Every structure is written in C-alpha cells, then in structure tokens.
Amino acid sequence: MREKQTVYLETTIPSYLVAKPSRDVVVAGHQQITHDWWETRRNDFSLYVSEFVMDEIARGNPAMAARRFGVLSGVPVLEANDEIPKIAGALVMSGAIPRVAYVDATHLAVATIYGCDFLLTWNCRHLAAAQSRRIAERVLLSRGYVPPVVCTPVELMGARYGMERSDR
C-alpha cells in the first residue's frame, strides 16, 4: 500500500473553513472550494500544521479561534527547529517573500524541512504567487531541499473537481 502524500496546511485553510460566508464573490468561492476539499479530499492525505499556524489561528475573536482549533483537532503539529529561521531568512533575503510577511516564509520553511509534498494555501500574494514560487524553489533547491508544491485547494482537488485531462 502506498503511503499518503503529505500536506502542510497554512493558516488560510482553517480560517476559510470556519469563516462566515464572504460577500466578496471570489473569497466566497475560495471558501466553498476549501469546504469541498476538506470534505472530499483531506482524508486522501496526511495533514500537518506548525506552531506558526497554531499561533496565527489563536489571534482574533476567541470564539472563531476556538473553531479554528477545533477544525485542526488531531492534525499533528510540526515543531520549530534551528533550521527554520535560516531557511525563512534566505527566502526573505532572496525576495521570494517580503520581510513584512516573514511568517509566510516560516510556513514554507517548515513544509520544506519536514519534506511535505504540498503546502496548501489561499495566500496568493506571497506563497502561491507564481513569481514568488519560482524564486523560492530556486532558493530551496540551492540549499539542498526539495520544495513542496505550493498550491490552492482547487489545484489539489484533482479529477473530482473538473481537473481531469480532456480527451479532445
């Protein structure tokens, strides 16, 4: 039996799972796709978060924070280590991720160091942005790491969500 692929859940995933439906049509669509992925695909993967995710989801409204923690109940938490700030710093210094978004660099560092196959996020400004991904991949490869595939839930839905190959 083949081992499940691993997915690092960045903070936007539990946040979208418990948030009130957005009035913004794009965000509402992202929320629905996140729910669909959670219901139909999450059990196909081994899921992980980090201490950084847990810190971020603790912020804000206490009731909503409790709901975010509830969604992640049972998901293993990857521990921080001395290599994470080194990798995160290299990602910031390269310009892959801006200094003001250092915590985003830590998410990518954790997912990389622990060898996760995917980093799942809706952060398309810093993590799932094509140009940022390209720079980050070069940085991580140059340091001897295999970077995770940084993607959104729609990209990890596969054939179950209209992503199958066309036979045109």
Describe the structure.
- This protein has one domain (5-161): 5'-nuclease (Rossmann fold).
- By secondary structure, the chain is α/β, with parallel strands linked by helices.
- It is globular, with a radius of gyration of 16 Å.
- Helix content is 46%, strand content 11%.
- Strands 3-2-1-4-5 form a 5-stranded parallel sheet.
- Helix 5 packs across helix 7 (130-142).
- Helix 7 links the parallel strand 4 and strand 5.
- It has helices spanning 12-18, 25-40, 51-57, 62-71, 83-94, 102-113, 130-142, and strands at 5-9, 45-50, 77-78, 118-120, 149-151.
The biggest beta sheet is recorded as: 5 strands, parallel
Mean pLDDT: 92
- In CATH, the architecture is 3-Layer(aba) Sandwich
Spans of at least 5 consecutive residues whose pLDDT stays below 50 are 163-168
**Tally of separate domains:** 1
> How many alpha or pi helices?
7
Which CATH class is shown? Alpha Beta
How are the strands ordered across the major sheet?
3-2-1-4-5
